[in-house]
Amino acid sequence: MTTIVHIPSALVSYTGQSVVQIACDHKTLAGLLDALDQQYPGLRFRMIDEQDRIRRHIRIFQDGGQMFEINHGLAADEPVHIIQALSGG
Predict the structure, then answer these.
(1) Which residues have a Cβ under 8 Å from the Cβ of 42 and sit 6 or more positions away?
(2) If DSSP states are collapsed to H, E and C, what string results for 42-62?
(3) Per the structure, how many domains does the chain have?
(4) Domain assignment present for 60
(5) Which residues, in sequence order, are CB contacts of 25 under 8 Å at separation 6+?
(6) How far is the CA of 45 from the CAs of 76, 77, 82, 88, in angstroms?
(7) Residue 22 maps to a domain
(8) How many Cα atoms occupy the beta-carbon half-sphere of 16 within 13 Å?
């Protein structure tokens, strides 16, 4: 399965582009994140903490719904949108 992933501008430094295609045999968000990290080392850590939770400033969506856990199933042929909140002053 190939999944289109929309990358937030703050993380484009890892991928070099805002939309990537990832070949992934897994049918969960965790599998997709692992495949992303294999192709773009360090990217997963920017989105997932040491307890395998999605970081509080990251939102991940597919098919109009937000995914809250990394074991969430993926819909076939639906793009994934990663949104990152920016903070600071």
Answers:
(1) 14
(2) CHHHHHECCCCCECCCEEEEE
(3) 1
(4) yes
(5) 1, 31
(6) 25, 25, 14, 20
(7) yes
(8) 4
**3-state SS, residue 89:** coil
**Domain contains 89:** no
- pTM here is 0.90
Contacts of 73 (CB under 8 A, 6+ apart): 27, 28, 29
Side-chain half-sphere of 48: how many Cα atoms within 13 Å?
Answer: 20
Placement of tokens 């430094």 in the chain = 13
CA pair distance 88, 70, nearest whole angstrom: 27
Per-residue pLDDT of the chain (89 residues; tens, 9 = 90+): 789 999 999 999 999 999 999 987 778 999 999 999 999 999 999 999 999 999 999 999 998 899 999 999 998 889 999 999 876 65
